[in-house]
Amino acid sequence: MAQNAGDAALDGRRPVPELHLAGGAAEGSRRPDAGAEQLPPDRHQAILEATKQVAALLKRQGHDFALAGSVAVYAHGGAGSLQHDADFCIRPEDAEAVAATLEDAGLTVYAPPEDWLLKAKCLGQDVDLIFGLAHGPVSTELLGRAQELSVDSVQMPVLAPTDLLRSLLAAFSEHHCDFGAVLPIARLLREKVDWGQIRREFGDAPMPAAFLYLLERLDVIAPQGGDQ
């Protein structure tokens, strides 16, 4: 999300314990980081401040987006301390306009080697602008299902619980299968997730099926066919 498993799950291409979606050194910066000198001393609060600033900029310009990753889990009631970055889902066709909005506000925007996101810097914190998830491009439908939630007293759209869990399970593979990082997220969101839909979408895919079986054995969710 230790990395945050939630975020890693979103990209589905790299191991990421703790909800951290994309890592790597930033390259190709175009402007100096705006506001780095005002970085709050608390890393958790610094990430929240960066999240709020970016969300405010996107909302002001009318961009469609949804908060993802570890900060999305926090918005849904997670109690852990944020230690990584802020993640936003945007549509591929909006990426250029979103980058322009952030650059016009003085933020640094990066084009990393990965072709499914842009990276930015805000208040000294990493911000990922994700337009490709493990199960496909970010769509209008996905953003339309986002829920308006308060993030440190600022309202913004946040990925719906079922979509958040779907992205995490889609990231499981033989090379990245950190159930321990996703388990507390599943516990937190279990009453809000459509587990029937999750089962239908993943079918007998081995890694998601194994994780769902673990949730059943731990009494986090009911067995298939049982009462949820």
What do these coordinates show?
This protein is an alpha+beta fold and 228 residues long. Helix content is 39%, strand content 16%. The protein is built from 9 helices and 9 strands. The chain has a 5-stranded mixed sheet with strand order 1-2-5-4-3. A two-stranded antiparallel sheet has the order 6-7. A two-stranded antiparallel sheet has the order 8-9. Helix 1 packs across helix 6, helix 6 packs antiparallel against helix 7 and helix 6 runs parallel beside helix 8. It is globular, with a radius of gyration of 17 Å.
How far apart are the first and last residues' alpha carbons, in Å? 27 Å
Strand content: 15-25%
**Gyration radius, rounded:** 17 Å
Overall geometric form: globular
Helix residue percentage: 25-40%
Helix/strand/pairing category:
alpha+beta
Mind summarizing the main beta sheet? 5 strands, mixed
Q: What is the strand arrangement across the widest sheet?
A: 1-2-5-4-3
Number of continuous helical runs: 9
Mean pLDDT: 84
Count the E strands. 9
- Which stretches are poorly predicted, pLDDT < 50 over at least 5 residues? 6-32
In N-to-C order, the SSE pattern is: HHEHEHEEEEEHEEHHHH
Summed up, what is this model?
This protein is an alpha+beta fold and 228 residues long. It is 39% helix and 16% strand.
Structure characteristics:
alpha+beta, five-stranded mixed β-sheet, 228 residues
What's the layout of helices and strands?
Blueprint: H1 5-11, H2 43-60, E1 66-68, H3 69-75, E2 86-89, H4 95-104, E3 108-110, E4 117-122, E5 125-130, E6 132-133, E7 136-137, H5 140-144, E8 147-151, E9 154-158, H6 161-170, H7 179-189, H8 195-202, H9 206-217
Parallel strand pairs: 2-5
Antiparallel strand pairs: 1-2, 3-4, 4-5, 6-7, 8-9
